[in-house]
Design brief:
341 residues; 10 strands; globular; alpha/beta; single chain; 8-stranded parallel beta barrel; two-stranded parallel ribbon; 14% strand; TIM Barrel
Length: 341
């Protein structure tokens, strides 16, 4: 394998987001609109203040960064939480606005207007994260616009010598319920398509944060199998391998809102398949059950819940990563095969 050139800034900053093994064991706490709605729902529809959003993020950061290699936050509510993170914890900051354009089904993204990559780095970012909804079967005019959008961010990250973590999320409104059988059958090809597309060098992406290519509810033999099969266990493992095979960049898995038990089972299946994933950026699976606690009883009660259940969740996740995840540099043939320039 030919040596891979990586700039010094990107190399060192990716390592800040990884543990000593080179595995990215990161916690995600950049949810905004969805978190606000969830807290509000848990307290019967009462509004949630900006201060409460910051309190929630601060509690999660304070407790979980003791067990994570990095924390993903947003600059809107999350910056005060950086002050309480555990020493040595890497920082990823979200650059995109929460949500997407709902005027049609294109789900066009947008960036936070008061921020730039330079400003995010100045605020403490070791890496920049952007979420992109992507439907590979959309008309070229839509996907060309999204591709150009990602190219611009990639160029901005290159100029500031900071890693770019891209989180593509597949969707296709024509398939109906994204948790349904038809979507589950189509998901592997959609995940494979975006992994192939956005690991191309023109986008400047350094790490892909991707979905599992299968829905575990439809994998025969899993704990969550509901009796309707989209894929056998062997087929699911092959779909993990196929998606991984097209990536030209290291990739990590996101929890996508599933429970901590399901996410761990997903990662175990990926590991059994021999998928060379480099870790996780895990959000809701670790802390979502603390939302009603916070909604009812506030910051101190959430801290208490996180110290118990949250720590158990992330510790169990780390045990799965210890067995299955590979160092990010192994994707390039090992540290010795990377030329830092």
């Amino acid at each position: 394998m030919a040596k891979v050139k990586i700039s010094r800034g990107k190399f060192e900053r990716i390592n800040r987001c990884a543990d000593e093994r080179g595995v990215i064991a990161a916690a995600a706490m950049d949810q905004r609109g969805s978190l606000q709605k969830a807290i509000s729902k848990a307290r019967g529809g009462a509004p949630v203040s900006a201060e409460e959003m910051t309190q929630f993020k601060t509690a999660v950061t304070k407790v979980l960064t003791r067990h994570a290699s990095a924390i993903l936050l947003d600059p809107e509510y999350g910056l005060p939480a950086l002050e309480v993170r555990a020493p040595g914890t890497g920082v990823l900051l979200a650059y995109e606005k929460t949500g997407y354009d709902t005027s049609d089904d294109s789900r066009m993204p947008d960036l936070l207007p008061e921020w730039s990559v330079r400003r995010l780095v100045a605020a403490g970012a070791d890496a920049i994260k952007v979420l992109l909804y992507y439907n590979p079967s959309h008309p070229p005019r839509i996907n060309r616009a999204k591709q150009a959008f990602i190219e611009r961010i990639g160029s901005e990250c290159k100029a500031e010598d900071v890693p770019f973590f891209l989180e593509p999320i597949c969707y296709n409104d024509a398939l109906g319920d994204p948790k349904g059988l038809e979507f589950a059958k189509a998901k592997p090809s959609m995940v494979k398509a975006y992994m192939a597309e956005f690991s191309k060098p023109e986008y400047g992406v350094d790490v892909l944060k991707v979905e599992a290519p299968v829905n575990m509810d439809y994998v025969e033999g899993t704990s969550t199998f509901k009796g309707v099969k989209a894929y056998s266990r062997a087929e699911a493992m092959e779909l993990f391998r196929e998606a991984a095979s097209v990536s030209q960049k290291p990739f990590i898995y996101l929890s996508a809102g599933v429970s901590d038990d399901v996410f761990r089972e997903t990662l175990a299946l990926a590991a059994e398949a021999g998928t060379p994933f480099s870790g996780v950026l895990c959000g809701r699976a670790t802390w979502q059950d603390g939302i009603p606690v916070f909604a009812a009883s506030g910051y101190d009660a959430l801290i208490e819940w996180l110290e118990d259940r949250g720590v158990k969740n992330i510790t169990a996740l780390n045990q799965v990563l210890a067995k299955g995840a590979k160092p990010w540099w192994d994707f390039y043939g090992g540290k010795e095969n990377i030329e830092v320039v």
